[in-house]
Amino acid sequence: MHKDVQKKDIVNTMNWELMYHRLGTLIPELDMKKYVDMFSLASIENGIARINYKGSADLEKFRDSYGDIFDEQLSWAYGYKLNAEFFQDKSKLPKNSPQPKNGAQPEKSVQPGTNKRKKGHSGQIVAAILILMAACIIGAGFLLFWKKPVKEVFYQLRSSKVSEDIRVIVLSDLRGEDISEIARRTELLDPDLVLITGDMINDSEMSPEQILYFANEIKDTASVYYVFGEREWNDFPSMDSSYTLSFDVAEGTSLFNECDSIEINGTQVDIFGIPYMGSLDQLDQDALSAYRDFMSNDTDHYKILMTHAPYIIKELEEQGLPDIVVSGHTMGGYMDLPGLGPVYDRELGLFPEDADAHDYIGGHYEAGSSNVIVSAGLASLGIPRFNNDPELAVIDIYHY
């Protein structure tokens, strides 16, 4: 891996007490006492937080009523995506109590000699091949048409430039997902800044008005910035200055090779937006000049570059990269195979993640002193995802 480009794991920072206080604003006091007061954290491993429950109330009722809220707040407080797995301390259970449903099940005994395989039957071999072929077809259809849930993915950064913590949410490649549900979850995460990095619409399922709706929904929660992807350019050529004006009225800001500055929690933040029209050779001299000014002016400000496709990053490395770069477009390589990485990119082909070539496909990278975060996108249907869930990216920037 290139010495200047290192893929980073999500940092784990635990804060059970913070989560407890947040839950107290979302869950009735009676249920807090009945359930959450009786919880203790046993372990965290592979994204699973094992929670010991020493009470006597019905855990299934808690899971049904508050499971999603608990997982969201657990992930928020600990700094990365966690799912809670509850179990009950057996020493506290009556002798005749049933075992927890998610507990380990006893192994079934198998009597020897009761399931001998018959050999030499060609019919069975043909049937097995047909079953395998059918499974492959069904599996391919499942990957294409199964609507996978969007997951929050948490990234943590530190900078001496920020006065107080800043939370940024990155949304990319929506393509027909429920924008009202994304707005609800965005508000729940309580960001300071929302960066929309393009391909949020298409000609059959999403319209520009829905993005205006989104900006209106969260305008009291966070500042919203939008940069176009190729779908905005190709599917909606009418998204011209009149749309930009409408977006501004909806309390958002569209950026076209230009910079805007905003104060967040006592920190001056400069944001530069570069749209993507479907071509790798798109930076003209005016855009490059504006980008150089963005990088050279007010160097004490925290600087963010937002662009739809990460390919442009390589073109800008000679000019220098800002504190953080956010993008989407690649869909995280669609499928992520263990040991092989992302499988496909539309511009770079098969197995595209090449650190020596500074190719950014999905996740968090370091490029010198800059951080690059490429969202896997929100879309699910029609995309053969494997080990690569649709992503609502949450970036927490802490002072150090």
Count of separate DSSP helical elements: 10
Q: Compute the gyration radius: what is it?
A: 24 Å
CATH architecture of the largest domain: 4-Layer Sandwich
Count of structural domains: 2
In what range is the share of β-strand residues? 25-35%
Name of the CATH superfamily of the largest domain = Metallo-dependent phosphatases
The residue ranges in which pLDDT falls below 50 over 5 or more consecutive positions are 1-14, 92-120
Biggest β-sheet: strands ordered side by side in the sheet: 1-18-19-13-12-11-10
User: How much helical structure, as a percent, in the residues?
Assistant: 25-40%
Shape: globular
Give a count of the beta strands, DSSP E runs of length 2 or more: 20
Task: Provide the fold topology.
Elements: E1 5-8, H1 16-24, H2 29-34, E2 39-45, E3 48-53, H3 59-78, E4 83-88, H4 122-145, E5 151-159, E6 166-171, H5 179-189, E7 193-196, H6 208-218, E8 223-226, H7 230-235, H8 241-249, E9 252-254, E10 258-264, E11 267-274, H9 285-296, E12 302-307, H10 312-316, E13 324-327, E14 336-337, E15 341-342, E16 344-345, E17 349-350, E18 363-367, E19 370-374, E20 391-399
Parallel strand pairs: 3-4, 5-20, 6-7, 7-8, 8-9, 11-12, 12-13, 13-19
Antiparallel strand pairs: 1-18, 2-3, 6-20, 10-11, 14-15, 16-17, 18-19
Q: What does this 3D model show about the protein?
A:
The chain is α/β, with parallel strands linked by helices and 400 residues long. The chain has two domains: 5-92, 2-Layer Sandwich (GMP Synthetase, Chain A, domain 3); 151-399, Purple Acid Phosphatase, chain A, domain 2 (4-Layer Sandwich), CATH 3.60.21. Helix content is 28%, strand content 25%. It is built from ten helices and 20 strands. It has helices at 16-24, 29-34, 59-78, 122-145, 179-189, 208-218, 230-235, 241-249, 285-296, 312-316, and strands spanning 5-8, 39-45, 48-53, 83-88, 151-159, 166-171, 193-196, 223-226, 252-254, 258-264, 267-274, 302-307, 324-327, 336-337, 341-342, 344-345, 349-350, 363-367, 370-374, 391-399. Strands 1-18-19-13-12-11-10 form a seven-stranded mixed sheet, covered by helices on one side. It has a six-stranded mixed sheet with strand order 5-20-6-7-8-9. Strand 14 and strand 15 (341-342) form a beta hairpin.
